[in-house]
Specification:
Strand content: 15-25%
Order of helices and strands: EEEHHEHEHEEEHHHHEHEHH
Structural class: alpha/beta
Distance between the termini: 50 Å
CATH class of the largest domain: Alpha Beta
Strand order of the largest sheet: 3-2-1-4-5
Number of strands: 10
Bound molecules: 5'-O-[(R)-(carboxyoxy)(hydroxy)phosphoryl]adenosine, zinc ion
Largest sheet: 5 strands, mixed
Number of domains: 2
CATH superfamily of the largest domain: ATPase, nucleotide binding domain
CATH architecture of the largest domain: 2-Layer Sandwich
Shape: globular
CATH topology of the largest domain: Nucleotidyltransferase, domain 5
Number of helices: 11
Amino acid sequence: MSLILGIESSCDETAAALVTSGREVRAHRIARQEEAHRPYGGVVPEIAARAHVEVLAPLVEGVLADAGVTLADVDAIAATAGPGLIGGVMVGLVTGKALALAANKPLIAVNHLEGHALSPRLTDPDLDFPYLLLLVSGGHCQLLLVQGAGKYRRLATTIDDAAGEAFDKTAKLLGLGFPGGPAVEEAAKRGDAKAVSLPRPLLGSAEPHFSFAGLKSAVARAANDHRPEDLAASFQQAVVDCLVDRTQKAISAVDATALVVAGGVAANSAVRTALRQLAKANGLRFVAPPLWLCTDNAAMIAWAGAERFAAGLTDPLDFPARPRWPLDPDAEKVRGAGVKA
Ligand code: KG4
Ligand code: ZN
């Protein structure tokens, strides 16, 4: 049984956790920066990086104390090395390297997306590879066939905005505040999802990808003529319809026994409910991590570290911080990613 220290700092959450290869979360702490970014209505990279510098070392001290262990008891140190806001990634990665060097422990450079992708296996010991994953976060919207630690086949991605990004922009447009996803979900509970007619970009399309930019523009055009609650509910339903349609297409294209959803938007109950029904209709198991494990945290980084450590994957101390880092480097580029249609 190994004990892994995980560090996460790729966006606006600073987090540290201690997780065992036996799926026990021995300690985890998260410091959120919402208050610091709220006046700007979005994450300000420079403010985020400075906040990570201030809180990360005490957080690591804190989780070690919570678990009643010292660095000497840890078997490896896993730190997010990308993708994300590069200033923040550097703070976490260099902290991980310094601890690895000081304690003479192996470093594991974790792809933040792999943290999300493997997170469902932390709480579900029965979830075996391969599984179909819908990864929906603030920066990404992808369908992946997860074949093992470090082994991913990307089936689809967004050609413009990520799903979480669409939630955040919609919240801003509707004056619902920051962070946007939970605010839209809350407002949607008091609204009518049929009140506003909104587009479902790429619904039924032969290409496997996602698109949300047109939906966001449609919300902007309708913003003055409808109640924010009705717009929120109609928007959320449109996102759900797109996610379900695209995921059904992927289910038909691959051989998997489970449908898994992960990432911040997986915390949305309308999204979870619709995907659970979709899985059932296709005779698939449905797995979604508990809410605390959906949004950014360090337990998922420690767990991805544990999976990589078990596979013998460790990294040198000169591993670079990467603002962009695809899980499937062989995936075809899509329009929107610098490629014209
Ligand atoms: O995975 P995550 O914490 O960070 C990234 O790696 O991006 O995802 C954050 C995203 C944000 O866009 C946030 O608005 C969205 O997840 N989100 C939600 C909900 N909770 C968080 N979106 C919809 N409904 C929610 N309840
Ligand atoms: Zn994330």
